[in-house]
Sequence to fold (572 residues):
Amino acid sequence: MKIAVCVKQVVSREWQLRVDESNTWIRDQDASYELNEPDAYALEEALRLKERHGGEVVVCSAGPARVSQVVREALARGADRALLVEDDRLVGADAFATASALAAALKDERCDLVLTGLQSDDSGFAQTGVVLAETLGLPHATIIMEVQVADGALRVKRELEGGWFQWIAMPMPAVLTIQSGINQLRYATLKGIMAAKKKDVKKVAAPDLAPQHEIVRLYFPEKAKATRLIDGAPADAAKELVRLLRDEARVIS
Amino acid sequence: MILVIAEHLEGKLNRASWEAVAAAQQTGEPVKIAALGAAVAGVAAELAAADAAEVIVVEHPALAAYTADGYVQALAALVTAEAPAAVFLPHTYQTRDFAPALAARLGRALLTDCLGVKADGGGRLFVRPMFQGKLHADVRPLGPSPHLVTFQIGAYRADAAARGAAPAPVRTIAGAVDPAAVRQKAEAPFQEAKQAVDLSQAERIVSIGRGIKGQEHIQVAEKLAAALGAELAASRPICDAGWLPMERQIGSSGQTVAPKLYVALGISGAIQHLVGMKGSQVIVAINKDPDAPIFEVADFGIVGDLFEVVPALVAALNG
Ligand SMILES: Cc1cc2nc3c(=O)[nH]c(=O)nc-3n(C[C@H](O)[C@H](O)[C@H](O)COP(=O)(O)OP(=O)(O)OC[C@H]3O[C@@H](n4cnc5c(N)ncnc54)[C@H](O)[C@@H]3O)c2cc1C
Fold:
């Protein structure tokens, strides 16, 4: 089975966000980056499917030159080779542009399955995988928590709201967007990191991008609610909080 | 005209549909509401109470159970025929499943998870969260209309949807669905086996997020829970990592709780977490990031390192 996994590089959670001078994007010159978390789960699922059914895992990413970092990481975790669509215009791109770039890399690959995370931690569109499916002419299902493959067909467990689920059957090839928590992640071993250096990374040109939206202003939201912030050294703040919860809010005795 | 796509499960209307109706009404444009299914007269009658120009029922046996392919086909035809100025939808799991394919098929822009609408000359800007809600963006959709817009659950109030003086007219049309082109086959929704812990009954909850850093630190929170007489709960990543069982997860894909006291330790306050706990009577947030969205719902907050603050709290409670 040939499985492609689309992964995105996002600014790391620990990095302190700042808005740039244009007020339309983040000041990312000194940002640190990481693999988008749901994509890490998609990669893990692909590696597990390969272990069960054999085949190949191809990692695919679209973005500026720096995204080769997450591609290397995916190769170190066990992906067999990579496709990289490198273009500076993909920074902050809309889902349609990203999906078009990924589709350009994947269209001749004839994968049985394409996996991606259900959304990214930066733009959070929750669109890319589904638009990619439509662009490639493949069926899809989203927010997947289990993947079963038998006789060339898929049966996948789709998460619904509030603890509900639903099984969906569909033919392959198909595109699935994977939910965090579907499996337990593995991390790269030293051996994996060494092996990754020899793996093939193929560059693919980005198609022309017609942007679908424009960020007019990016800003920290104004607070609507007045939180009572308690200052002071931890011991003093803790005492004051306990007093407030006992005497004012009366939620503890 | 703005076309709202309502959502229902087996004839039960999703309340988030009313939120999308409210968003559409507040633009001042005429509103039409569409519902898809095999037998949705009940849903249509309910929607007809809205102050709307029309309720359109799109019927086809192949729409009896939701599938992405069925909805995309039927809605692509409907949107083309109605030519609305915009299409509004609630940002539910179902919308996430079909709307991007619908937008791609129509070749139209889709803005997801929007929080509000702003005037922009003759057009509109949509406010949407970015970077897990830490930033907001005013976004202008580009390209030909209709643009598709989905609204975050709770961004508009369902009860803000205006009701009409008389029921809106209901028009039923045959859905343009080719069943042979529906590739997904959906089985009935189900819940996992009944959960052992019912956090909805807890009076006090101490909830941990990724700020707890490692499973070995959970005992820090357990001590606070013991001192408060509280149950322990968590955000999704904690349960994903297997540090606490899934049944202790709070949020859109976990439990919804409304205790007297909810103490959030090292939880950033992503919307999927907030929907599960924002009904709590008193919310306390302890987080080292003053910009964390959890402070948007917290009554009391301490900006600081939970590993310093929590032991101090335990001491203050026990002392
Ligand atoms: C479809 C879908 C469904 C989802 N369902 C759910 C759900 O049901 N429940 C849920 O919770 N999430 C859910 N999520 C995930 C959600 O979007 C967030 O990713 C998640 O809630 C973040 O968890 P967190 O706040 O623990 O982690 P993070 O966002 O990483 O936040 C960690 C916080 O800890 C703080 N921190 C770090 N160290 C310290 C310290 N030493 N002291 C104090 N503070 C510290 C940081 O400042 C940060 O604010 C869902 C997502 C999707 C897409």
In short: The pocket of flavin-adenine dinucleotide is lined by residues A 13, 118-119, 143; B 132, 209-211, 235-237, 249-254, 266-268, 270, 272-273, 276, 286-289, 292, 305-307 (CB under 6 Å).
